[in-house]
Amino acid sequence: MTSLPTTSGDQPAFGCVVYIRRNEAGRLCGRVANLDGLETEGASERDILAALVKATRAKISSYLDEDQRVPWIDPPKAKADDETKRFLPLHL
After folding, report:
1. pLDDT of 47-61, one tens digit each?
2. pLDDT for 58-73, tens place per residue?
3. Exposed (0-12), middle (13-18) or buried (19+): which is 27, by Cβ within 10 Å?
4. How far is the C-alpha of 90 from the C-alpha of 81, rounded, in Å?
5. Angle in degrees, CA 65, 41, 60, rounded to 5
6. Does the pTM of the predicted model rise above 0.85?
């Protein structure tokens, strides 16, 4: 059995846990459960995930640029009953 790489050359890979729900106004809301401060709203799940990818990459890059450890939340924050869990793998 071969193991899958977690990095591609000098390009690190990260896994983000994302929770998505519909708010009272009917818009979708998403948040990264394993890294603080990343939330957004959008018209579709695709919009939410695209915005969170961009924000998460920027946040991780800022930590790495400053030679700081990324403050992952492990285990991730709890999922509410009305949220759907998604796993968002990304490369910087």
Report:
1. 999 999 999 999 999
2. 999 999 999 999 999 9
3. middle
4. 26
5. 10
6. no
